[in-house]
Amino acid sequence: MRRAGGWSLARQLFALQAAIAGVVLVALATASWFQLREAGREATAEEMLGIAHTLAASPEVLAALDDPDPTAVLQPLAERVRLDTATDFVVVMTPDGIRYSHPTPSEIGRRFIGMIEPAAAGENDFTETYTGTLGPSVRAVVPVFDGARVVALVSVGRTITAVARDLQRQVPLVLAAVAAALLLAAAGSWLVSRWLRRSTHDLGPAELARMYEYYDAVLHAVREGLLLLDREGRVQLVNDEARRLLALPDDVGGRRVDEIGLPAPLGVALAEGRAFDDEIHLTSDRIVVVSQGDARWAGRHLGTVVTLRDHTELRQLVSELQTVRGFADSLHAQAHEAANQLHTVVSLIELGRADEALEFATAELETAQQLTDAVVAGIAVPEVAALVVGKAAAAGERGVELRLEDGARMPAGLADPRDLVTIVGNLLDNAIDAAQEGPEPRWVRFGAGVDDDAVELRVSDSGPGIAPEDAERAFERGYSTKPADGMGRGLGLALVRRAAQRHGGAVRLAGKAEFTVRLPLVRA
């Protein structure tokens, strides 16, 4: 899907990140400026307080106060200190605030402008920002003690303008830090947008949203099951049909495909990641046709795509069609045989041998009716009874005698008739095929009986049987003693086991050529 227009998601994200980074850095620079300004004033106040304490503790100041003209001594001393310390004013004054010194000589003898009461009361660490004769300034005022008595005050200050000049020297450093941070943020945003551009194929948010909506709708609408697996065999995507066919839980995302409860052959086949087409697998209640192929994008191997098709109904239709075809073939054979027998009877009558004709017709009728009567009397499930009669005729055409054991009994309501047809039909088919491969006489036995609240079905044959080491493997999908013919060999016994298990029963191989199915008897 090509992007129709507008900015891609990567470009929009880059612009958004750049704008956010710019706003954040401007706010940071502004906050840093105010913080530096406040820190500069606090540092200046501490510096002024230290200079004032040093001067107040000087013996020269205390000695000058005893002089008849204190200004003559204190003014030169204060100016020297001011110049040495790069301050804007150093003022020595009386406890009442009358100046002995000032950078502007005309201000000497005038009252000091500012708060002096704390210092006059003996407070040693009083600082303030105040507007005096030189403008707004940061100043400290400390007392000069003569013993315990305050005899003078010393004020040292620096104007706000001078403090701002000192602060401006740090502006280039702040701007350089902001510029470096901006460059790093831009570089990081560019790398993120480049990665996002590759990941989203330069599509915009609207295109991505539309693509997701369409693909999600298609994914859940298709009638084939779909699984997407990554390179490690973990489930990344599963649609509704796949959940239905495989009876998957909701939390399969991110789990390995061979750990989500699939039948072992299917889970192993999908976990291997090999490509295959139209393999038939069995689940707990379904037959599915599975295909798996590589998933690639721009030459990169992303994982595998698994498609599943429900083969259960088709298999049932094929089985029913084969049964109907067998019935038709049996009827055709019986009609042909009946015609031969009728011609024989007619010919015997024409030859004047009426007694022989009656004896021949009666014997044939008794032979055909004997099996039908036994089946109808012992098997109360009409579908199974019809199946056994049909299979007997089909077996007879192939030179195999199908016999019903004496006293065979199958009650009605035992299980779903379709499952019973699956069980009995597959066992009889396999037995007839096996008997054909064995020596004469070729026969198949079918028996049924009620025992300990269970019904036991038995099918045995005169064929070569199954080796003991293959007894368990015979029930696995794909196992067959017949040559492959592209018709899905190796499903019959697997279907028998699944059908029996669905009704709480079990199937086993007794001896080499006798299969026994036990189904619990449901009583009213």
Automatic annotation (TrEMBL):
Transmembrane helix found in the keyword field: yes
Membrane topology: Multi-pass membrane protein
Origin species: Pseudonocardia adelaidensis
Stretches of the chain forming a coiled coil according to its record: none
Domain of life: Bacteria
UniProt GO molecular function: kinase activity
Matching PROSITE patterns: HIS_KIN (PS50109)
Chief location category: membrane
Enzyme category, top tier: transferase
Listed transmembrane segments: 173-192
Keywords: ATP-binding, Cell membrane, Kinase, Membrane, Nucleotide-binding, Phosphoprotein, Transferase, Transmembrane, Transmembrane helix, Two-component regulatory system
Taxonomic lineage: Bacteria, Bacillati, Actinomycetota, Actinomycetes, Pseudonocardiales
Protein name, entry field: Sensor-like histidine kinase SenX3
Reactions the enzyme catalyzes: ATP + protein L-histidine = ADP + protein N-phospho-L-histidine
Location(s) in or outside the cell: Cell membrane
InterPro entries: BphY/WalK/GraS-like, HATPase_C_sf, HATPase_dom, His_kinase_dom, PAS-like_dom_sf, sCache_3, Sensor-like_sf, Sig_transdc_His_kin-like_C
Classification via SUPFAM superfamilies: ATPase domain of HSP90 chaperone/DNA topoisomerase II/histidine kinase (SSF55874), PYP-like sensor domain (PAS domain) (SSF55785), Sensory domain-like (SSF103190), Sporulation response regulatory protein Spo0B (SSF55890)
SMART domains attached to this UniProt entry: HATPase_c
EC number in record: 2.7.13.3
Residue stretches making up the Histidine kinase domain: 333-523
